[in-house]
Amino acid sequence: MSDPRLTPDPALVTTRRAAQIGVPVADLCRRPHGPRDRQVLFGETVTVLNEASGWAYVQAEKDGYCGHVSQSSLTVPRVATHRVSVPATHVYANADLKTPDLLSLSYGAPVTVTTQTKDFAETAQGHIPRVHLAPIDQIEDDPAKIADLFLGTPYLWGGNSRWGIDCSGLVQAAMLSCGIPCPGDSDQQEATVGKPVSGDYQRNDLLFWKGHVALVVDAETMIHASAHKMAVSYEPIKDAIKRIEAGGDGQVTAHRRPELP
Length: 261
Prior knowledge:
SH3 type barrels, globular, protease, mainly beta, endopeptidase fold (from Nostoc punctiforme), six-stranded antiparallel β-sheet, Papain-like_cys_pep_sf, cysteine-type peptidase activity
């Protein structure tokens, strides 16, 4: 049986065109007006498969996730040249930090830079500080370092941005930044990211529980987005294992090691 998260519903597919997310973050919903499954960021590309009553049925390019977004969140696609490389940034009206901020963008958001000055990069949306951007093809080499950028971010079920993120959203952001293909949900990640290992924990290993995932920082510590702290936080691995089992969510179901570039 196909996974509806990754396989478009044939009954809904009436068209196929490329589009981009034109708002800071858009909810990817299970159905129109339905619950949020995941989110897509400004500048990310989607394939529009159906449009009706103000909603678009789309498939995200970054991970193949299918769902419904508001039609008003879509815009004409542009070729991205850079991505936001800090937790969040502002887009200013002019190349001057004292001018009005027009838009806020989260880590990883792709942007199209048209010109650059000493301190700012100009886009169709406005001006972004150059120090907040990296070339779109720049690959990072340490997922745990990327996860640390989200430290303190509020927990949000299905969240994928600096404004709110969940456990699998945090892992996906970290992995994709390092050139490691990574689906959106923790069960998908447990099935596909890295290889099963046992024994000592190493930096950037992944630990899975039923419905949860954490990223190992060192032999004794992990970072994760959890409802326990309602934020991205560090936690001793041994403490987390005991706490999660005591709370009724069982033991670790998998220990996997991603292959870094």
